[in-house]
Amino acid sequence: MLTDKTTQSAQTSWRRYLPWINLGLTVTLIIAGLWYLSARISLASLAEVLTSASVLLVALAAVTMIITILAKAWRWQLMFPYERPPISLSAAFWATALGQYVNMVVPFLRLGEVARLYALNQEAGTSPGRAFGTLVVEKTLDLIFFGLTIIFILPFVILPDFVDRPGVLLVLLPLIMMLALYLLAFRTERVIQIWRHIIGPLPTRAQALLMRLAVNGLEGLAALRDRRLSLLMLLISLLIAILSILLPYVVFLALDLPLTFIDAALVHIVITVAIVPPSTPAKLGVLNGAAALTLWQLGINDEAQIAGYAILLYLVVIIPQVLLGLIAASRTKWRWQTTIDPVITPAAPNESEQLRP
To answer: Is the bond into 203 cis (omega within 30 degrees of 0)?
Structure first.
């Protein structure tokens, strides 16, 4: 009992100091970044690049980021066709915003998806188990269109040296995953029978838990059974892919850089690959560095322009996510322990589906 109390106290203390640890790391990275920039380029020339940027186009880039989040929320909303009451676009939007915010604030644990499930439960009362299956569909769609983006630009560009040339597996894997999801959606009963046979040797309590998780997860694939919804989700995924390229391109225009939409697609690919692993708070330094290295590979030699682009792109990507995330956290009454507790101390089987207070 004493050990349990000590462990719980240590976990509480860790949660209490986590925001300050992230803040300290962020401040340290900002100071180090400013020192590096001052050693390489004139801060006056950097300020000149930033102040010369078109305010209208910078605002358009920020709006593009918000529309991208809205499109992702719309696609997610469509993945709950049989939910009663229906999932509103507002609920899906704020849950998506909270998930992105948590992934920035707690970068090492990648708890954004847990936060999304919590927020959707708070906003619409949706079961986390059913919602989990939709996340699998969403990530598969993103992977498919990311692979298609790479296929699209390969004939036009030479990938930078620090990016491995993608193989056939990068293209085939998401397509295979989507085919598997499609088969699961239309062969649900057969899948449940196979799963029941697999977990048969386990204790009754474990069987009941694993069966409930499987059934709830398969319910999350319900949208794939509707061909109209499937087509609409594919079209929205295409829109998201285009918006993801449009954002860095608009920042090109804002700084009057002589680069094309294809170059913007390359920037998007390199940044996406760079920020996938857990890294620094708000991807500070990682996103900037990936953008800067790509511009250098694309023939931009003015270091002030490169630094100005990396900073401006970072701001139009991160600031909307932070502001929307703060609003979402307030709406859902999200707290640190809300997201961290389920990972540190898993809920009991009869409590896992009841997040709503």
So the answer is: no
